[in-house]
Amino acid sequence: MRKDWDTYFLDMAYMASTRSQCSRRHVGAVLVQGKKLLGAAYNGAPMGVPDCSEAGCMLVEEFELLNQGGDEQVVKKQRCIRTIHAEQNLLLFTDPKDREGSVVYVTDQPCWTCANMLANSGISEIVYHRPYPKDSDKVKSLMQQKGITFRCLEAYEPPQGTMAEVQH
Ligand SMILES: [Zn+2]
Ligand SMILES: [Zn+2]
Question: In the UniProt entry, which residues are flagged as the active site (predicted)?
Fold first, then answer.
């Protein structure tokens, strides 16, 4: 069966994510303009400095407020800050002219900082697969304010072997 465009480009984002060396998160993103692939990126350390596989993850601890069915809970979480996020790398390595009116396919729902940057990058649509509940509400409201289409492909299944086993 022929793959539809959403599946095709999200597959490519997952392919890009397999390049990531962070043991905590493998994220990939691609830039698409009129069905043409104009860039691909993944989360990683800046070029020329040791990445997570060489230097280990750079972990910080954060407290997160979780709300499950009206039940609020403070949970301690660890996050790796060594890497530049896939979406940010995508913005660093694509042309502003190419981004105007384009679509970003990304394996994971963008965090607040990435969403904020994407909102100011000229793109008109974001398609993602895995949810990221922590920043979801404020990210969705930002996209609404900016008129950026924000879609989750819930029924999507990544290509075999592209979903990394990660620690959380
Ligand atoms: Zn890492
Ligand atoms: Zn991010």
Answer: 87 (proton donor)
